[in-house]
Each structure stands twice: as C-alpha cells, then as structure tokens.
Amino acid sequence: MSAVHREALRGLYTITPDDMLLPRLSAMVSMALRGGCRLIQYRNKVAPAPLQRAQAADLLRLCRAVGALLIVNDDLHLALEIGADGVHLGDDDGDLVAARKALGRERLLGVSCYSSLDRVETAARVGADYVGIGSVYASATKPQAVRASLDLLGEVRRRFGLPVAAIGGITLDNAPEAIAAGADMVAVIGDLFDAMDISARAEAFQGLFNHGMPVSP
Ligand SMILES: Cc1ncc(COP(=O)(O)OP(=O)(O)O)c(N)n1
Ligand SMILES: Cc1ncsc1CCOP(=O)(O)O
Ligand SMILES: [Mg+2]
C-alpha cells in the first residue's frame, strides 16, 4: 500500500446515501471533500447500473481534484471499470481472493467483518487493506445490521494490525468513544449527510482525529 493510501485510512470515511440524482449526490460529496474528508465510498443500493456508473465516475473526478480516494461498494467490476482506488466487499459481495488478485497491490480492498474475528482473520489472510467493524451503534440507515461491541475495535487493531473502520450509527457525539476504543476511521452516512452544513460536519469529524476534539459543532 502506498503512503498516500495509508494516510487516507485514518479519519472520516464518507459513505454516500442512496440518491437517484447525479448532481445532487456530487454536490453533497463535494461538501464532504470541502470539509477535509479524503476517503469516500460510493454506495448506492437503489440506482440502476448505468446511473451507478455515471455517479461513481463523477465522484472519482471530484476525488481526483483534491487528492481524495474513492472506494466502490459491492461492485469490483465497477471499481475496475472506472479506475477507482478500491472496492469494499461484504459477505455476499464476491470472492475476496479473486478481488485481491484483480485489484493488484495498488488498489485498496476493504472487507466487512461485522462482529466476527474469524472474518477478520480471513480478511487479513487474503491481504485486505482495512476492515469494517459494525454496526457499532444502532443505524437508522441499516437497522437490521448485526451489532458489534466497542471492545472489538481495539481487539481487531491489536491482534491484526489492520486499519479499522467503525460503522453503524456513528455520530459526532459518539465518534470520540469509537476512536478511543480503537477505530482508525469512522464510516458515516446519516450523521454527515443529514447535517445542515455537511462541510462543517465533515470538518468536525476530521477534527476528532487531528486534535482529539471537534473543530466546530
Ligand atoms: C467501511 C464499511 N464497512 C462495512 C460496510 C458494510 O458492507 P456490507 O456488509 O457489504 O453491507 P452494504 O454496505 O453492502 O449494505 C461498508 N459498506 N463499509
Ligand atoms: C452500511 C452499513 N453497515 C452497517 S451499518 C451501515 C449503515 C451506516 O450508515 P449510518 O452511518 O447512517 O448508520
Ligand atoms: Mg456490500
């Protein structure tokens, strides 16, 4: 993994909300980038494939302009097709070994591990670049998600040395607790994109990593 990639695996990890409008989604992600976020995941569970492709390509353009990384959720082929910086795969999203091979060493592979140390072990064995742990808190975006304990964040970090993204119900209020427990990244949808000022909220999340305290409310 390059130094640039390693550096990006700390801080706010912006995950996109389901949105059927390309300009609106791009405008929202631009605000997160303006707030200093340098890691974006394109996740859209409702858009048809052609719109997904167009949205992901536009987000990649925005990320490239500021030196941020774009990870595509679920879809290795889309990630490779647009030349994204990596893919994030869960339990049902395809073979991890094949994905690692197709991505090469330069592009990132993120793996959802839920609350399972066995899955973290598998992710480490196949050469994942980071793991997602959660849902750490109750998530309005994905209420049915399995829950993971805060303690697991630190345990995964200590035992496997892989960057850990805490996900699920993360807010500006509870993120310090997740970071103190061992999260290298906080992966956020709702509390970022529901904010009145998305840039300010992104900056506040980033500030938790830079100074240990939010920059602004
Ligand atoms: C950083 C991060 N961690 C976990 C997930 C969840 O992935 P998955 O379990 O495949 O669920 P969906 O996101 O596809 O609904 C994630 N996307 N990102
Ligand atoms: C994709 C995913 N996986 C577990 S919770 C979740 C959704 C996270 O969204 P939010 O930050 O709004 O809880
Ligand atoms: Mg998935």
Automatic annotation (TrEMBL):
Pfam families: TMP-TENI. Keywords: Magnesium, Metal-binding, Thiamine biosynthesis, Transferase. Mg(2+) binds at residues 74, 93. The keyword Lipoprotein does not apply. Residues 12-190 form the Thiamine phosphate synthase/TenI domain. Its EC number is 2.5.1.3. 2-[(2R,5Z)-2-carboxy-4-methylthiazol-5(2H)-ylidene]ethyl phosphate binds at residues 139-141, 169. Binds 1 Mg(2+) ion per subunit. Signal peptide: none annotated. It catalyses: 2-[(2R,5Z)-2-carboxy-4-methylthiazol-5(2H)-ylidene]ethyl phosphate + 4-amino-2-methyl-5-(diphosphooxymethyl)pyrimidine + 2 H(+) = thiamine phosphate + CO2 + diphosphate; 4-methyl-5-(2-phosphooxyethyl)-thiazole + 4-amino-2-methyl-5-(diphosphooxymethyl)pyrimidine + H(+) = thiamine phosphate + diphosphate; 2-(2-carboxy-4-methylthiazol-5-yl)ethyl phosphate + 4-amino-2-methyl-5-(diphosphooxymethyl)pyrimidine + 2 H(+) = thiamine phosphate + CO2 + diphosphate. 4-amino-2-methyl-5-(diphosphooxymethyl)pyrimidine binds at residues 41-45, 73, 112, 142. Pathway: Cofactor biosynthesis; thiamine diphosphate biosynthesis; thiamine phosphate from 4-amino-2-methyl-5-diphosphomethylpyrimidine and 4-methyl-5-(2-phosphoethyl)-thiazole: step 1/1. The keyword Metal-binding applies. It comes from the Bacteria. One of its GO terms (molecular function) is magnesium ion binding. It is an enzyme of class 2 (transferase). Its cofactor is Mg(2+). GO terms for cellular component: cytoplasm. GO terms for biological process: thiamine biosynthetic process; thiamine diphosphate biosynthetic process. Condenses 4-methyl-5-(beta-hydroxyethyl)thiazole monophosphate (THZ-P) and 2-methyl-4-amino-5-hydroxymethyl pyrimidine pyrophosphate (HMP-PP) to form thiamine monophosphate (TMP). Belongs to the thiamine-phosphate synthase family. This is Thiamine-phosphate synthase. It comes from Denitratisoma oestradiolicum.
